[in-house]
Design a protein that fits this description.
The complex is a heterodimer.
Chain A: H1 5-11, H2 18-36, H3 70-73, E1 80-81, E2 84-88
Antiparallel strand pairs in A: 1-2
Chain B: E1 2-12, H1 52-64, E2 72-73, E3 76-79, E4 89-92, E5 99-105, E6 111-121, E7 125-131, E8 134-140, E9 147-153, H2 160-177, E10 189-198, E11 210-213, H3 218-237, E12 245-250, E13 255-261, E14 271-272, E15 279-280, H4 283-291, H5 297-308, H6 312-318, H7 322-334, H8 341-350, H9 360-373, H10 378-391, H11 393-400, H12 406-418, H13 424-435
Parallel strand pairs in B: 11-12
Antiparallel strand pairs in B: 1-9, 1-10, 2-15, 3-4, 3-14, 5-6, 6-9, 7-8, 10-11, 12-13
Classes of the chains: A mainly alpha, B alpha+beta.
Chain lengths: ~90, ~425
C-alpha cells in the first residue's frame, strides 16, 4: 500500500529527515499490509459498530465540580506568562 | 450573477458545567486558567463524559429547526494541531450528528434548508502579542470544553438581508429555548458565512468558496457579505476566479482581508471517539423531550394574531423577545374590558415604553387615563379655566406678584370641577396663557 509519508508527518506535526521518511514509509506500509489481512475475514453477518464496550448513553448531569487552581493548571509547563500558557506565535 | 451563501453558526450553550467535565462553563471575565481540569486541559488518562443537558438542548434546537432526530448518534474526533485545544483534537460529531435535515422560513418568504445541528466543544482563547520583543501566543483554557452547538445551512442564501434575518431568528429561537444568551458581541453566537458567486447560466455550485470570519455583530454581517459579493463579482467580471481562502472582516478598513489561504484540503481524519460510548434515544424519550419545547416565535406570532386580533407587524414586534411578549400578555389580561389589546400594542410599540420600569398594571392605568383625557376638548377645558380664574381673582393677582405656585392651585381647581384626570402639562400651559 502506497503512503504519502511527508503528508502524514505534517499531520502528526513531526519533522523527519528524508532518510527517516524512507524508513518509516516502509515500516508503515508493512503495518498496513499486516492489518489488511482483516479484510479476508467474512463479515457478512457481523453488525457494524465503532466500539467494543457495548456501553451506551454514558452521560453526566449538568453539575459543576471544583477545577484546578491556576498554579496547578500551569504546573507542567515552564512556558507561561501572567497565568497564561505561552507558545510560539501561531497565525 | 448570483451570490451563493451557506452559513455555519456556532452557539455556546449556557449550561452550568462544561461539555465533558465538571468545570464551570461560566468563564466570561474570569481569571485565566482557573476553570480547567485534566479533561479540558487534555492531560493523559483523563476521561470525558458528556453533559446530558447539553445533548438535550442541542436536540431541542434541532427540533425547533424542524430537524429529524436520529435515534442513534455518536461523537467523533476531529484531529488538528493548533494550540487552542490541548488534546490535538476536538470532540465533535461527524457522520451521525444529533440533528439532521431541518428548515426555517424567512420573512422574505424563502425557506432555508438546515443541513445539520451537531454538538462539539469550544476551544481555548488565544491571545497574540509581543513579549520582550518576541511574538508569542498566550492561551487561556477556561473556554476550552464549553458546550458548543454548530448549525450548518444549505447554500440557500443569495443576499445579506436574508442572512441577517436568519441569524436574528436563530438567536430568537435559542433565547426562547433558554439554552444560550446568543449574544454576538460576547461571542456566544459566532458565524462563518461561505460566499461564492454563481455566474449567469452556470448550474451547480461555483468551483471555489470564500469563508469569512471575525463577524461579531449583526451590522458587520451585512457589510462583510455585501463587500465580498462586490469583490468577487469584480474578479469574475475580469474572467478570473477568486482564490479559495479564509478572510476576516476588518471594521477599521471596512473590508475583508485575507487570513489564510488553504493550500490543500483539510485532513481532519475524523474517527469515532473511543472514550465516549454512543448515544441512543428511544422514541418515547424524544417525544418527551419534544413535549418540553416552549411556544416558539412563529407559534406565538400566529396565536397573538388570532387571540388578540393584531396585525403581523404588531405581533412580530411584541414577540421579539420573551420579556416583551409576557409583558404584553400580562397587560392585555389586566386591561381586559378597559382597553383593547390593540391600544396596549400601540402604546408599547409607538411610545417605546420602558417595560423594566413600568409594571403592566400601571401601564393599563395610564393608558386608561390618557384615553379619557382625549375625550375632553380644548374648548371645554378653556371654558373651565376661565371659570376658575373668574371666580378666584386672587389667582391672577398673586401670579402677577410672581407667585408661580398659584398655578398649581388653579390646576387642582379645574380638575375638581371637571371631575376628571387631565394632562397637567396641557392644563398648566392653558392657565399660564390665560393669566398673561
Amino acid at each position: 500500500m502506497k503512503i504519502n509519508i511527508k503528508h502524514i508527518a505534517k499531520l502528526a506535526n513531526l519533522h523527519i529527515s528524508d532518510e527517516e521518511g524512507k524508513k518509516f514509509e516502509k515500516q508503515l506500509s508493512e503495518i498496513l499490509n499486516y492489518v489488511n489481512q482483516l479484510n479476508s475475514v467474512d463479515t457478512k453477518n457481523v453488525e457494524i459498530t465503532s466500539q467494543i464496550t457495548d456501553l451506551e448513553n454514558v452521560t453526566r448531569e449538568d453539575k459543576t465540580s471544583p477545577s484546578l487552581s491556576q498554579e496547578e493548571a500551569l504546573s507542567n509547563t515552564k512556558s507561561k506568562h501572567n497565568g497564561l500558557f505561552k507558545v510560539k506565535k501561531v497565525l | 450573477m448570483k451570490a451563493v451563501i451557506g452559513l455555519e453558526v456556532h452557539i455556546e450553550l449556557k449550561t452550568k458545567s462544561k461539555m465533558f467535565c465538571g468545570c464551570s462553563a461560566d468563564y466570561f471575565g474570569q481569571k485565566p486558567n482557573t476553570h480547567t481540569c485534566p479533561v479540558c486541559l487534555g492531560l493523559p488518562g483523563a476521561l470525558p463524559v458528556p453533559n446530558k443537558k447539553a445533548i438535550e438542548w442541542c436536540s431541542m434546537l434541532g427540533m425547533a429547526l424542524n430537524c429529524d432526530i436520529p435515534l442513534f448518534s455518536k461523537f467523533d474526533r476531529k484531529n488538528y494541531f493548533y494550540p487552542d485545544l490541548a488534546k490535538g483534537y476536538q470532540i465533535s460529531q461527524y457522520d451521525e450528528p444529533f440533528c439532521l435535515k431541518g428548515s426555517i422560513n424567512l420573512e422574505s418568504g424563502k425557506t432555508i434548508g438546515i443541513t445539520r445541528v451537531h454538538m462539539e466543544e469550544d476551544t481555548g482563547k488565544l491571545i497574540h502579542q509581543a513579549i520582550d520583543g518576541q511574538d508569542v501566543t498566550l492561551i487561556d483554557f477556561n473556554r476550552s470544553g464549553v458546550p458548543l452547538v454548530e448549525i450548518v445551512t444549505e447554500p440557500d442564501f443569495d443576499n445579506a438581508k436574508d442572512v441577517v434575518d436568519y441569524l436574528k431568528k436563530l438567536q430568537q429561537i435559542a433565547r426562547y429555548l433558554d439554552i444560550s444568551n446568543a449574544d454576538m458581541e460576547k461571542g456566544d453566537m459566532r458565524l462563518e458565512p461561505n460566499i461564492s458567486i454563481r455566474k449567469a447560466g452556470e448550474a451547480g455550485l461555483p468551483n471555489y468558496k470564500v469563508e469569512v470570519k471575525n463577524i461579531n455583530s449583526f451590522k458587520f454581517v451585512e457589510k462583510s457579505i455585501n463587500y465580498e459579493i462586490d469583490r468577487q463579482t469584480k474578479i469574475l467580471n475580469e474572467d478570473k476566479t477568486p482564490i479559495q481562502e479564509t478572510r476576516g472582516w476588518d471594521e477599521n478598513k471596512q473590508k475583508t482581508v485575507t487570513q489564510r489561504v488553504k493550500e490543500e484540503a483539510s485532513d481532519y481524519r475524523y474517527f469515532p471517539e473511543p472514550d465516549i460510548p454512543p448515544i441512543r434515544w428511544t422514541k418515547s424519550e424524544i417525544d418527551k423531550l419534544r413535549s418540553t419545547l416552549p411556544e416558539l416565535p412563529q407559534e406565538k406570532i400566529s396565536r397573538f394574531q388570532k387571540q388578540y386580533n393584531l396585525s403581523l407587524y404588531d405581533t412580530t414586534i411584541l414577540t421579539e423577545d420573551l420579556t416583551t411578549s409576557e409583558y404584553f400578555e400580562t397587560a392585555a389580561t389586566a386591561g381586559a374590558r378597559k382597553i383593547s389589546p390593540k391600544q396596549i400594542a400601540n402604546v408599547m410599540i409607538n411610545k417605546k415604553i420602558n417595560i423594566d420600569e413600568i409594571l403592566p398594571a400601571k401601564l393599563i392605568e395610564e393608558v386608561t387615563i390618557s384615553s379619557k383625557k382625549i375625550n375632553i376638548s380644548e374648548e371645554e377645558l378653556l371654558e373651565a379655566v376661565r371659570k376658575i380664574l373668574k371666580t378666584n381673582p386672587k389667582i391672577a393677582q398673586d401670579y402677577k406678584k410672581g407667585k408661580d405656585s398659584v398655578v398649581q392651585f388653579a390646576i387642582g381647581q379645574v380638575m375638581y370641577i371637571m371631575k376628571k384626570k387631565i394632562d397637567t402639562e396641557i392644563l398648566r400651559k392653558l392657565i399660564i396663557e390665560e393669566l398673561k
